Amino acid sequence: MMTLRELLNTLPDAELSFSEKASNIAIEDVTADSRQVRPGSLFVAVPGVHNDGHRFIPAAIAQGAAAVIGERPLSEIIDAEANGLGRTVPYLRVQNSRRALAFVCAALQGFPSRRLTVVGVTGTDGKTTTSTILESILRAATATTEAPAGAVGVITTVGARIRGEEIDTGLHVTTPDAPDVQRFLRAMVDAGCRYAVVESTSHGLHQQRVAAVDFDVAAVTNITHEHLDYHGTREAYVAAKALLFRALFASSPKPGAPRAAVLNADDAGSYDALRAALAEEMESSALDVAIRSYGIAGRSPHSLDVAVENIVYDADATRFDLRWWGGRFPVESPLIGEFNVYNAACAATVALALGIPPSAVQRGVKEMPPVPGRMERIDVGQPFLAIVDFAHTPVSLERALTTLRPLVGRNGEGGRLIAIFGSAGLRDREKRYLMGRVSGQLADYTIITAEDPRTEDLEEICREIERGVREFAGPDRYVIIPDRSEAIQAGVEMARAGDVVAAFGKGHERSMCFGEIEYPWSDQEAMRAALQRCADRWQRESV
Is 39 exposed, middle or buried (0-12, 13-18, 19+ CB in 10 A)? Predict the structure, then answer.
């Protein structure tokens, strides 16, 4: 609990409309959802894409809001005078409500990120896997007999974990909203964590959800084609990602916490743009931020601080050497595919920049737990490989199919690579055609289906994907099955020994959106159920 005046000290741009006496009002919580307001709440009116929070100020006051923050002048707020806004209910006008929300939430929680070493991980693909690898490394570095989970907390799009304890962050989320981010960080401090890893999406960065987080290290996996429906242009998308790196210069250094930016030197989509953003910030800042680059040896014209060498791919593991500024050491990862080599290299570079010893990097990478919905194998004894993966962009789908291709027919049988996927409604339309081209070229058979159509016509979405598939595949190599459960069932039923059947796009998610309603959904459950329905057939065929 804090007084309104204490919270206002974090908002230097606020224009105050209330008496000095009102500044002593006690604030117990902060919310941008009028339905969650209770007596003692500070309501923040946030302009949104579909709804403007200023419309709900009367409802918040009726629920007992102690004070209100907004962007609009009092004269533009409906029923302001009738509801006592600016008179009996203090009103604070700010330039950016989202940013104000982040800072007052942080203040109410005691600015927890200032008591942690915080790593932000961004990128189009691989954020969750990289964050999970880094969490495993940091756990290995801080684990004790009494606390084997280590002094680490992590916030990803899959969920949050604090010293190994899972906390669900919701159904369809990117970076959680500011109140939840600050609440999780506070819980990490209370649990005695030393490190926090925060997966930072472009939406989360642009919408100021992590604006009040004091980052010490920022890392990027890659930047490819995605989210242009929201950002409008690729330049705007990259600029949103760059906000994480600019944030390194917005907070004061912490004792014992190195400050670093970790870049993928092999990724043309991010390296030059982020170097330029960092150079801009360095010109006007006295802070010392080390720039560390990683990549596969021989791939990039840029020098590498951490270079991957001598890669060996196996069906169930990947081995390689890491050459860094302190020497060289071998790494073994349970993850397959070149894209996971990059994910591991990114996490390792962050850890080394933090001063973590190579032995903890080796142990953490090797012992990392599976990441839900990332190349996740579903096995009920079938004679082929069944996979659930989150690949939902043209680049990530290409990487996934390329990774799975060597696993086709590995048992000596012939085999096909069967891809099942869709594309989300009310999102980037261009990627539907592009993903279709990728699958038509790299998969042996494509099943086009639903993936969060929202209020768009599902059949039209499928036809846009089909247009790309048909550039490389005839009508005997693809089918449209709009119902995702039926599509997965069809893929399983057509599979034979040596095949690989993979459902892409949903991964860890536990809902699917039709219209404006989120319905419970799990690719893992759908795949497992489909496999079990065919179990009798495999038993007969094996006799």
Answer: exposed
pLDDT digits (tens, 9 = 90+) for 148-176: 889 999 998 777 999 999 886 654 456 78
Residue 232 CB burial class (10 angstroms; 0-12, 13-18, ≥19): exposed
Cβ partners under 8 Å of residue 127, min gap 6: 121, 156, 157, 199, 200, 201, 221
Taking residues 383-399, what's their average pLDDT? 92
- Residue 343 in contact with residue 130, Cβ under 8 Å? yes
- Give the Cα separation of 265 and 508 in Å (integer): 29
Q: Among residues 405, 484, 407, 510, which one has the least CA distance to residue 168?
A: 510
H helices present in 85-231, as ranges: 97-108, 127-142, 178-190, 202-206, 228-231
Name residue 327's beta-bridge partners: 324
Q: What is the pLDDT of residues 79-133, one digit of tens each?
A: 888 888 888 889 999 999 999 999 999 999 999 999 999 999 999 888 999 999 9
Residues of the chain by 3-state class (helix, strand, coil), percent to 5: 40, 20, 40
Q: What are the tokens at 538?
A: 């495999």
Distance CA 99, CA 414 (A): 56
H helical segments located in 55-167: 57-62, 97-108, 127-142
Task: Let me know: does 501 contact 384? Beta carbons within 8 Å.
Answer: yes
Give residue 15's Cα distance to chain centre: 35
Task: Enter the pTM of the model.
Answer: 0.85
Residue 208's SS3 state is: coil
DSSP E strands in 316-377: the ranges are: 318-324, 327-333, 376-377
* Cα separation, 320 vs 307, whole angstroms: 10
